[in-house]
Specification:
Elements: E1 21-27, H1 36-49, E2 50-61, H2 62-66, H3 73-82, E3 85-92, E4 96-103, H4 139-146
Parallel strand pairs: 1-2
Antiparallel strand pairs: 2-4, 3-4
Length: about 150
């Protein structure tokens, strides 16, 4: 049981709330979502559930960002920028990357969404890049976020 005002929910199943949240905590969850497209949907939903100025406290294993052939720190940050989540602070421990994001008034659309965020695409190679972590925005998500893509 949770104290009043605290909700436990599956972001991939709930309907957008009537009142937006001030804070969302997503700790070691995105890496458990089964595929890149579902991860993109979850990132988009977290942004859309936050009020402008709201905060997202987020953690992910560093191996997801450092050992994937499909994403690196720069492309990971670009994914969050795409949906209007600006990095306020980061911290790394030997195993975990910590982020604090703030919901901005508008998604960052200064340039076209890179192909590696539209589909799973290898951006680096080598034996050390052995995991399958990726964040991908499908067509429906792209329309919902920026309104400029055709469905």
């Amino acid at each position: 049981s949770f104290p009043p005002g605290i909700k436990k929910a599956d972001f991939l199943e709930i309907i957008k709330p009537d009142q937006l949240y001030d804070v969302i905590v997503c700790s070691m969850v995105l890496n458990c979502v089964p595929n890149g497209t579902a991860r993109g949907e979850m990132v988009q939903r977290m942004a859309s559930f936050l009020r402008v100025g709201g905060l997202l406290f987020f953690t992910v294993p560093r191996t997801c960002l450092e050992l994937s052939p499909y994403i690196d720190r720069a492309s990971f940050q670009k994914a969050f920028d795409f949906v209007g989540l600006k990095i306020l602070e980061t911290k790394n421990t030997p195993k975990v990357a910590f982020y604090i994001f703030e919901r901005t008034a508008k998604a960052s659309r200064t340039e076209e969404l890179p192909l590696y965020l539209q589909r799973v695409q290898q951006i680096r190679s080598g034996k050390k890049f052995r995991n399958k972590f990726a964040v991908v925005f499908d067509k429906a998500c792209q329309v919902q976020v920026c309104g400029s893509k055709s469905p």
